[in-house]
């Protein structure tokens, strides 16, 4: 029998914590959400001797005060779940800042292992750390690692195993501050012990420090306790005295004492052998964050990324397309030629065509996510957030909003999940609501169908570009509007660490890229699968038994006529089209399309477009296959939109075509996006607000464009 | 102790780049102060401006880490030049 043990991994952002986590647990990971909040809970496991160790990767934080949801979660996991050991990963080349968090674990009085990660960087910088002495001062075991080279990982596993077996010996040392802070701490903890109102799981000294730090959550905790108000009153008196003694806010006094303790420790254990020179990261930054060339450089890089995404992705797209064509043909072959089977139609026209249409864009989207994962892994994205902050500020958004919006060009779903990095609700909500305006990968099939059908070769690129640009401009206007109405308030001050540039490990790139791709795949596997079935039913039922004309007879008549084989083929096709159209207008989809036609008229749309738009609601890309069904081309040439491309210009003009793209760009996001907005905003209101708001917006903009356009036609 | 008493207190926005500065104070509410303190920006701590951007956006170096800070923030931090 094996022993199970629970530990947590904690550390600053950019300390290489996730790399250590990946190196420890490999593929044995599980990603979930902490209940009620949108902070990811990542759990993995590994074996050390006969022990099975379960590791929770806590969110990266600089502190354990109630400054952000991440910080609250990190400490609450430690307080309520009581892990046997906290493995604290610190950046060895930047010990002073990193130990600030370490000290707060010591205040909590938990068993701890200190991991000096990136020790090679520290040595390169000429920093020598006396680990033995540091271990004695802090009362913890110390392991040196180089996470991205997996150095020291086996040693770490061994030490974790040893510590969980005999944890009592490794309780970290109690931190002692100078008298001006120690006295109020002692007084407060005495009151807590005397009144016997210690909430479960908390330590008196730690609560005392948090009260002096004016920690929101702890104050609320005491407000909820019966005898709590007395404690708070006493705390206020002590805070007032402390503040008048040192003439500084008490929370800053606590911070200063922590840093004081740390710098004392560092003086004892750290020695710098060489004078620090300007390192490579600083040299790179002097170019990429340069106030003049920073943004142009970024735009060039983005152009390269998008260019590669499409050129490298195209052959793969072709393969997937052929694969689904083959699959459709293969499944069709189970039925004898000409047999009318509802199941066959459901499988081939509904499911395979529907899901296939979405999966075709998998290569493009995966490549875009790969590029973003690389840029994130190197540390470049932090710089991008900074150089874009000034621009984003002008539209009322935070620099960090930029990255989700960039991901939005791939898929809105991971983009909306990416808004978690924003701390202020107003920043986060605004970003979330406008992300769908970034033209996502699912809209590409629509453009790819329409643009070559209506516009000349030279106009193709400018038309495509104009659509993307309109999306960005509308997003900017909407963000400005939202920030000056519903989400009023000051911008969050921008502060972001610029970590040294690193070459990301393949593993971490893979994990990031894959994580986002899976979200897209899940959408194809679940929502789109279900939607395909429903849409197929809506487009096929109810069946019309009595048709207006005897189409079979007409076809026979043509077959027997004197026309050339070529003409016969064309005539037969026309008749079949007519029959399909008649059948379709009898179905649910056709009826809804007809019913809303008057409302669509101002935008230049007819019932056929309306029908396809309804079909495109679950996922934008379904518009194309819906148009195929509406124009009854599905039966003739299943996967080849060439037929549809030829057909469309016979019914619509260029202005209408442009309006279709515009409406698809701006209107209601897909079901998956609405679902993720609901989850991330934790409210149906905002999800529906996004749905209705964007649709109304699309209606207004498209109508204006069409009506104005008509004047010039 | 460094001697900073005879240099004037200025906003970080207007402080010179490339020289050692000492934090005098930070305005903007105690939650904001506590947040930046966790990053190493608090009274009497030294920092240096690495790169200056337009409208007060800065790259600063504090406690061996480089931080990018926005215009709104650099205005709230008051510093003195270390002489």
Q: How is the biggest beta sheet of chain B arranged?
A: 6 strands, antiparallel
**Biggest sheet of chain A: strands, sense, closure?**
7 strands, mixed
Shape of chain A: elongated
The total of beta strands of chain A comes to 10
Question: Mind explaining what this structure looks like?
Answer:
The complex is a heterodimer of chains A (713) and B (83). Chain A has 713 residues and is an alpha/beta fold. Chain A folds into four domains: 3-170, P-loop containing nucleotide triphosphate hydrolases (Rossmann fold, 3-Layer(aba) Sandwich), CATH 3.40.50.300; 179-246, no CATH class; 278-529 and 672-696, no CATH class; 530-671 and 697-712, no CATH class. Chain B is α+β, with helices and mostly antiparallel strands and 83 residues long. Chain B has a single domain (10-81), classed as SH3 type barrels (Roll), CATH 2.30.30.90. Chain B is 18% helix and 37% strand. In chain B, strands 1-6-2-3-4-5 form a six-stranded antiparallel sheet. Classes of the chains: A alpha/beta (713), B alpha+beta (83). At the A-B interface, helix 3, helix 11, helix 12, helix 16 and strand 10 of A face helix 1, strand 3, strand 5 and helix 2 of B. Strand 10 of chain A pairs antiparallel with strand 5 (65-69) of chain B.
List keywords for this structure.
heterodimer; A: 713 residues; alpha/beta; Rossmann fold; 4 domains; 7-stranded mixed beta sheet; two-stranded antiparallel ribbon; 32 helices; B: alpha+beta; SH3 type barrels; 2 helices; 6 strands; globular
Question: Brief overview, please?
Answer:
The complex is a heterodimer of chains A (713) and B (83). By secondary structure, chain A is an alpha/beta fold.
Secondary structure: elements and pairs:
The complex is a heterodimer of chains A (713) and B (83).
Chain A: E1 3-11, H1 17-25, E2 29-33, E3 40-48, E4 51-57, H2 69-81, E5 85-91, H3 95-108, E6 112-117, H4 119-124, E7 127-129, H5 131-138, E8 141-144, H6 153-165, H7 179-195, H8 204-212, H9 216-224, H10 228-246, H11 250-269, E9 270-272, H12 280-288, H13 294-332, H14 342-359, H15 362-378, H16 380-394, H17 402-407, H18 412-417, H19 425-434, H20 444-454, H21 457-484, E10 495-498, H22 506-525, H23 527-540, H24 551-560, H25 565-586, H26 588-600, H27 607-615, H28 622-630, H29 641-647, H30 654-666, H31 671-681, H32 684-712
Parallel strand pairs in A: 1-4, 1-5, 5-6, 6-8
Antiparallel strand pairs in A: 2-3, 3-4, 7-9
Helix pairs in contact in A: 3-11, 7-8, 7-10, 9-10, 13-14, 13-15, 14-23, 15-22, 19-21, 20-29, 20-30, 21-30, 22-23, 24-25, 26-27, 27-28, 30-32, 31-32
Chain B: E1 10-11, E2 20-26, H1 30-38, E3 46-52, E4 58-62, E5 65-69, H2 71-76, E6 77-81
Antiparallel strand pairs in B: 1-6, 2-3, 2-6, 3-4, 4-5
């Amino acid at each position: 029998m094996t022993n199970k043990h629970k530990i947590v991994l904690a550390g600053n952002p950019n300390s290489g914590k996730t790399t250590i986590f990946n190196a420890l647990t490999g593929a044995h990971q599980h990603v979930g959400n902490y209940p009620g909040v949108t902070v990811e809970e990542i759990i993995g496991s590994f074996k050390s001797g006969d022990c099975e160790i379960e590791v929770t990767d806590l969110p990266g934080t600089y502190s354990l005060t109630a400054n952000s949801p991440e910080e609250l979660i990190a400490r609450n996991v430690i307080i309520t779940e009581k892990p046997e050991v906290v493995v604290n990963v610190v950046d060895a080349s930047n010990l002073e800042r990193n130990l600030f968090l370490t000290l707060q674990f010591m205040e909590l009085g938990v068993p701890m292992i200190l991991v000096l990660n990136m020790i090679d960087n520290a040595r390169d910088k000429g920093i020598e750390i006396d680990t033995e002495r540091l271990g004695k001062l802090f009362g913890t075991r110390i392991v040196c690692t180089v996470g991205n080279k997996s150095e020291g990982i086996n040693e770490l596993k061994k030490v974790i195993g040893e510590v969980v077996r005999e944890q009592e010996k490794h309780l970290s040392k109690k931190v002692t501050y100078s008298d001006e802070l120690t006295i109020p701490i002692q007084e407060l903890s005495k009151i807590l012990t005397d009144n016997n109102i210690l909430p479960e799981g908390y330590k008196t000294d730690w609560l005392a420090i948090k009260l002096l730090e004016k920690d929101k959550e702890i104050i609320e905790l005491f407000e909820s306790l019966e005898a709590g108000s007395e404690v708070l009153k006493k705390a206020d008196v002590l805070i007032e005295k402390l503040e008048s003694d040192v003439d500084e806010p008490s929370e800053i006094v606590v911070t200063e004492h922590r840093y004081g303790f740390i710098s004392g420790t560092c003086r004892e254990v750290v020695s710098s052998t060489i004078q620090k020179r300007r390192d490579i990261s600083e040299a790179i930054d002097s170019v990429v964050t340069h106030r003049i060339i920073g943004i142009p450089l970024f735009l060039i890089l983005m152009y390269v990324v998008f260019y590669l995404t499409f050129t490298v992705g195209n052959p793969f797209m072709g393969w997937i397309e052929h694969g689904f064509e083959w699959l459709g043909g293969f499944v069709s072959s189970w039925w004898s030629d000409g047999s009318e089977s509802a199941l066959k139609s459901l499988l081939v026209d509904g499911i395979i065509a529907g899901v296939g249409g979405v999966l075709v864009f998998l290569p493009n989207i995966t490549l875009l996510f790969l590029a973003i994962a690389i840029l994130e892994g190197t540390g470049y994205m932090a710089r991008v957030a900074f150089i874009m902050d000034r621009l984003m500020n002008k539209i009322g958004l935070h620099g960090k909003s930029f990255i989700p919006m960039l991901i939005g060009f791939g898929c809105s779903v991971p983009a909306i999940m990416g808004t978690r990095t924003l701390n202020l609700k107003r920043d986060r909500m605004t970003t979330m609501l406008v992300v769908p305006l970034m033209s996502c990968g699912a809209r590409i099939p629509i453009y790819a169908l329409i643009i070559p059908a209506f516009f000349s070769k030279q106009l193709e690129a400018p038309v495509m570009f104009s659509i993307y640009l309109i999306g960005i401009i509308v997003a900017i206007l909407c963000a400005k509007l939202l920030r000056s109405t519903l989400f009023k308030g000051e911008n969050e001050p921008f502060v972001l660490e610029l970590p040294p540039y690193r070459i990301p490990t393949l593993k971490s790139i893979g994990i990031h890229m894959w994580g986002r791709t899976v979200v897209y795949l899940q959408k194809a596997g679940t929502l789109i699968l279900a939607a395909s079935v429903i849409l197929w039913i809506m487009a096929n039922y109810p069946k019309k038994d009595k048709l207006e004309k005897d189409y079979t007879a007409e076809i026979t008549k043509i077959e027997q006529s004197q026309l050339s084989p070529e003409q016969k083929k064309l005539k037969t096709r026309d008749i079949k089209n007519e029959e399909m159209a008649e059948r379709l207008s009898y179905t649910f989809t056709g009826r809804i399309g007809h019913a809303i036609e008057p409302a669509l008229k101002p935008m230049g749309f007819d019932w056929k477009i309306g029908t396809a738009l309804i079909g495109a609601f679950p996922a934008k890309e379904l518009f194309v296959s819906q148009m195929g069904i509406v124009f009854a081309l599905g039966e003739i040439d299943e996967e080849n939109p060439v037929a549809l491309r030829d057909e469309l210009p016979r019914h619509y003009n260029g202005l209408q075509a442009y309006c279709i793209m515009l409406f698809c760009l701006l209107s209601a996001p897909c079901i998956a996006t609405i679902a993720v907005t609901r989850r991330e905003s934790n409210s149906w209101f905002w999800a529906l607000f996004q749905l209705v708001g964007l649709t109304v917006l699309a209606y207004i903009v498209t109508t204006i464009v069409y009506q104005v356009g008509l004047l010039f036609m | 102790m460094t001697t900073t008493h005879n240099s004037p207190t200025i906003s970080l926005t207007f402080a010179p780049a490339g020289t050692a500065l000492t934090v005098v104070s930070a305005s903007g509410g105690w939650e904001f102060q506590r947040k930046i303190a966790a990053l190493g920006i608090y009274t009497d701590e030294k920092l240096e401006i690495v790169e200056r951007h337009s409208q007060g956006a800065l790259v600063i170096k504090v406690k061996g880490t480089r931080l990018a800070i926005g215009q709104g923030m650099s205005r709230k931090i008051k510093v003195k030049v270390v002489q």
